[in-house]
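In keeping with the milestone schedule agreed at the kick-off meeting, the structural modelling team has produced records for the first pair of proteins. Each record is given below as a sequence line and a structure-token line. The laboratory manager (R.T.) confirmed that both were archived under the project's standard naming scheme.
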Amino acid sequence: MTRPAARPYAIIFSTATLDGRIASSTQYSMLSCSYDLARLRLLRGAAEAVMVGASTVLVDNPSLRRRLNPSSSKYYRVVVDGKLRLHEELRLISEPDPPVILFTAVHDNEKVERLEARGVHVHVVGENGIVDLVKAMEILAVEYGIERLLIEGGGILNYSMLRAGLVDEIRVTYTPYIFAAGRSVVEDPGATGFTTTSQSPRLRLLCLEKCPCGNCVHVAYRVESTCCPPATSPYAEPCLSEKIAALVKEAIRGST
């Protein structure tokens, strides 16, 4: 594995069906209960940046702005867009804050200038439409001072980050649904993946808990086969159900 000079502590967070799908064959992906959304936003609050792939942005058009109990005013939205497909009408681009960092592998000066005119920080790292994730993580740590990163997918980005040894934790909420087709939590576009258990990332269970909704299960694993140490120690408790139950209860009380 190539080693960056420095990198953030990175957590993958996904919500999936029982068969490990984060979206159906029709791209339907509304799986989270209110408690799971609170878990996601609490993790965003503990992080200094959130990272997604271009397909997630193009399909879901998220803002990635909502956080709970932010531990820092520093917060970036990061997109890995190897083919530079993002456009100015997307919420990430049209809503100026928090700032957006975009990593691409396409040298299109005209489009880069248009995005930068909208306040996007564009870095061209990689070639042939494939972003150099090691370099991207180094840029986040060294140029932006980001030490705590939350990765929200999709499955191809999750796979690429794991393959490069750049992920420290995987956290997945499993919901009581089955899609049987569609996008997976971790997905190799080349359909090869990790072919044996010895090739798989080495994982150690940190937490297994029932969601306060009573019908979902959340698991958290530490990845013990990373490329190199991160810039900081773990930034969120492994088990969060008690905390998110209290947060949702308080939100309900405040709305009445």
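The second protein of the pair:
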Amino acid sequence: MGHITYARYPECLVETDSLLTAWRSLCHVHSMYSSDYTNKGLLIYGASGEGKSCLASHYAKLHPKSEIDGRIHHPVLMYRFKEAKKTTSDILKLLIDALGVTPPKGRTEPGELDKQFKTLVKNLNVELIILDEIQQVLPNTDGVQALNTLKYFCALLDELPASIVFIGSDRAMRLLKFGELTPKNIDDNEQLSRRMLRPIKLERFEPKTQKWLDCVNWYMDKLQLPSLTVNDGSLLNRIYIAYIERSFSTLECLFLRTDMSHITNQAELIKQLHENYQLYCQHLNPFDETNLSAIAVNELIEDYTKSLRSEQS
């Protein structure tokens, strides 16, 4: 593995410590393809809306499929599992199709799909495979079926020239913790964790912090509106209550989905945030002061902060 070139972090994503770390790790594990190292895997996980898929999608777009000297190059294959898949054959058929080839229908000979997929990865010069919503391929409980899936991922990391990034919810950590609650009759002698870099969890901001203020002001800057300050604590807290619902997905709905070029002051901003939340979100509207008083907002903030710190400890 030579010198690592870190791709420029996308301007359309908020800069957070965990997202920046995930971006650099994506670049790092990508640079490990074709190396002799077997630990060419990476897990990025976290709650819905934290920016996992968006980050990976932007990275994949930096490495589009192309034709060089008459040969197709597909440097980054990104696939998102949309529904639960039970077997490695199911998974392989989806990945083969994602590489532009129709997989065999019906029953196949042992190893046929594996051989076809590995041949495609080599012939198309795939350097990095990103598997999104990876928790979809894991059964609800540890057992032989889950073990077989994990063993196959181990084999891919051992045998493919490409690196692999797994992306998923908190439940995806089972990839690395498999066997902790496994019945003793399950032989887990092929640990995926030994083939992985340190996993990265995308963390949420705590309220009433400089990082939260900087986050909100990133969106204010996108709207070309004056930055908020600590003196705008009431508004910052109400935005945070909205943020609790679906993290950055909610903030995008609040600030970026609707034309807000007409806004000239904070009163107009709050009115538009109220309308956007009512349109795009599901919970009690935090910008409605008649339904959610300042006292109630502060109580929700305090309770959520305790919960957040408890999860992180």
